[in-house]
Design a protein that fits this description.
The chain is an alpha+beta fold. It contains 5 helices and 6 strands; from the N terminus they run H-H-H-E-H-H-E-E-E-E-E. The strands form 2 sheets. A 3-stranded antiparallel β-sheet has the order 1-3-2. The chain has a 3-stranded mixed β-sheet with strand order 5-4-6, with no helix packed on it.
């Protein structure tokens, strides 16, 4: 991180994140982006958890707007969506290819170490398709 980036305010960092991807920093986008990247750290969020975080601040955003904005952030390449069980989506501000741990007891996703996961080969994609992404989600359950 450069000194210039370190000295930015959370809103400045969020605004630069949005404009760098070609998105106009509307009030709602800026509110959500500040929560997501304002401190310079990566986040894994659900739409519901991000919506809840806006409720404690001065600029509450509706759940529908949160969903729509997260989709726009993904389409702009700012975030990736990680789906667990085909029913629950998490949104990750870290966009490079990396595996995740899914903590079943807590319903939380965290980054897993990249260096210990090896995919030796992938199947050939069916005719007329290509593999666009491989998600690796390692499910964890605490033992007592």
């Amino acid at each position: 991180m450069t000194t210039d980036t370190k000295n930015r305010t959370p809103k400045d960092r969020a605004s630069a994140w949005l404009t760098g991807a070609g998105l106009r920093p509307t009030r709602q986008r800026l509110t959500l982006a500040t929560l997501l990247v304002g401190d310079g750290n990566n986040r894994h969020v659900t739409a519901e958890s991000l919506h809840e975080a806006t409720r404690s601040g001065p600029d509450s955003v509706s759940l529908a707007t949160v969903y729509n904005t997260l989709r726009a952030f993904c389409e702009a390449g700012l975030m990736t969506e990680v789906t667990v069980d085909g029913s629950r989506s998490y949104f990750d501000t870290r966009t490079d290819d990396h595996p995740h741990f899914f903590w079943e007891d807590d319903g939380v996703i965290t980054d897993a170490p990249t260096d210990s996961v090896r995919i030796e080969a992938l199947p050939h994609a069916p005719e007329g398709t290509e593999i666009s992404k491989v998600d690796v989600v390692i499910r964890l359950r605490r033992t007592l």
